Amino acid sequence: MNNRQIVLDRLPAGDKLAPDHFALNVGERPTAGEGQVLLKTRYISLDAANRAWMQGATYRSALEGGQVMAGGGLSEVVESNVGHLKPGDLVFADAGWQEYAVLQGKTLSKLPDLKPETHLLSVYGIAGLTAYFGLLECGQPKAGDTVVVSAAAGSVGSIVGQIAKIKGCRVVGIAGGEEKGRWLTEELGFDAAVDYKSPEFKRQLRAAVPDGIDVFFDNTGGPIFEACLFAMKNFGRIACCGALSQYDGAPPPHGPRGIPGLIVTKRLTLRGFVVMDFAAQNDQALADLQGWVASGQLKVKEDIIDGLENLPSALIGLLGGENRGKRMVRV
Question: Which of 75, 89, 168, 228 has the fewest CB atoms inside 10 Å of its own CB, making it the most exposed?
Answer without folding.
Answer: 168
